[in-house]
Amino acid sequence: MKIEFVGHGxxxxxxxxxxxxxxEKQPLVGAAATLDERTGGAxxxxxxxxxxxxxxxxxxxLIAPHNxxxxxxxxxxVGAAWPLASDALESAAAQAYxxxxxxxxxxxxxxxxxxxxxxxxxAAFGIRLAAxxxxxxxxxxxxxxxxxxxxxxxxxxxxxxxxxAFKRLSGLADAVTLARDLxxxxxxxxxxxxxxxxxxxxxxxxxxxxxxxxxxxxxxxxGALLGxxxxxxxxxxxxxxxxxxxKDPDAQPIAFVGxxxxxxxxxxxxKPPEGMEEMIxxxxxxxxxxxxxxxxxxxxxxxxxxxxxxxxENMPDANAQRPGDVxxxxxxxxVEVINTDAEGRLVLADALWYCQNRFKPKLMxxxxxxxxxxxxxxxxxxxxxxxxxxxxxxxxxxxxxxTGDALWRLPMPPQYDKHxxxxxxxxxxxxxxxxxxxxAALFIQRFVNSLPWAHLDIASTAWKPNSTVATIxxxxxxxxxxxxxxxxxxxxxx
Length: 494
Ligand code: BES
Ligand code: MN
Ligand code: ZN
What we know:
Blueprint: E1 2-6, E2 16-22, H1 30-38, H2 42-48, E3 59-63, E4 72-77, H3 86-100, E5 107-111, H4 117-130, E6 151-155, H5 159-184, H6 192-200, E7 208-212, H7 214-220, H8 223-229, E8 237-244, E9 254-264, H9 284-298, E10 304-314, E11 326-328, E12 334-336, H10 344-359, E13 364-368, H11 373-378, E14 383-387, H12 390-403, E15 407-409, E16 427-428, H13 436-445, E17 453-457, E18 463-464, E19 475-476, H14 481-491
Parallel strand pairs: 1-6, 2-4, 2-5, 5-6, 9-10, 9-13, 12-16, 13-17, 14-15
Antiparallel strand pairs: 3-4, 7-8, 8-10, 11-12, 14-17, 18-19
Helix pairs in contact: 3-4, 4-5, 5-9, 8-10, 9-14, 10-13, 12-14
Residues 264, 266, 341, 343 line the site of manganese (II) ion.
């Protein structure tokens, strides 16, 4: 899809849709007012004659009135908040795209009416996010079922400045797209080595990438991570991604760690078949970290950052680890594996330990589709935040607010920690049924020394089968990419 910026967007052509923004119960302004005038009040009549009143989320699709060079005109409600902030423009433009994408029009002209370069760029960004589609494996889909919009034209006061502002956001959209693609790929295609190959390809945008195989991880003593992958014919991998953008190349990095379980059958503690296919998304944390590292490199962020991905496949097998097995982690601590389906924390234990010991980072944030319990607690729109540090938590919550990657902080009561004590090893990998996301976080914390650390449980948000958010098509959300990019931009750059 091509996106262009022009100085005036009211001229389209007979195969185009023209989208204009309308405030709630307000007089028409900007492009909508101009159009209304030019058409002898056709817009006003359409609005007054129906239920559309400019409320946020509403759209009204009209045949283009006489005197307008377009096939259709789409009114997009933006609510009362005029002038529009960038997130409102992002979602209004996404709605405009969603409203016409399957109508057969090939061009969408979005008339924003008097917004600055950043606002126009945000609108373009919203359309990029909304237009995401994972259709790699659809070979027989009829062309009249596919989205028809090929070109988007966005009106901006200063088109040159808008194009420049969009350049940065376009890199971020690519980063979200990358994360969504990784999450969407089935596990027969995207297994640990293939994930590692795709990460390795990112050296082309300036990222440093190292891949450790099972031999190297064995030498390092990563018995917990390796135990999870033991039943798979696919070799486990650890990917180390580095971005050095700070003035001082040796400045302490910030670190992101991702759970990359390419498929989670549960192992010998096998999951029930219903919905198991969704476990192709169990590498959503690793995908978010990969996307975030991409975003930093794409905009040449002035920061040193490290991304560590623990890539494994959790399978039942004659060689798979058993409930009752005791594994020794890289930290030296031992774990009694009570349930082989609580595998993500085992992967993170070694990945986090490796990260903090090798890189001595300023802080660590891990992202993981860790527990079904977080979905019970927060539903499908909000991720869980656990942390040992209030400042880092506040910064994450602020980034969460401004990007829409919603988070809610949950407690880590110290008295729950004993729930994962084991009679035979230093700890066991599951606690009691209640508070399952909390005991999982407490487990991970046992592998974090005294540095600021946050754990994001994104089992709730990595995958949305029925999305109602305009910028997130149903499926892989890319949750975490924008969040981490913003966390860095607002707090950790030179
Ligand atoms: N990958 C799952 C968590 C998950 C559930 C992700 C639903 C996405 C959607 C994780 O490995 C898991 O199986 N967790 C168990 C832990 C339990 C055995 C303590 C769970 O949540 O049931
Ligand atoms: Mn599991
Ligand atoms: Zn899992």
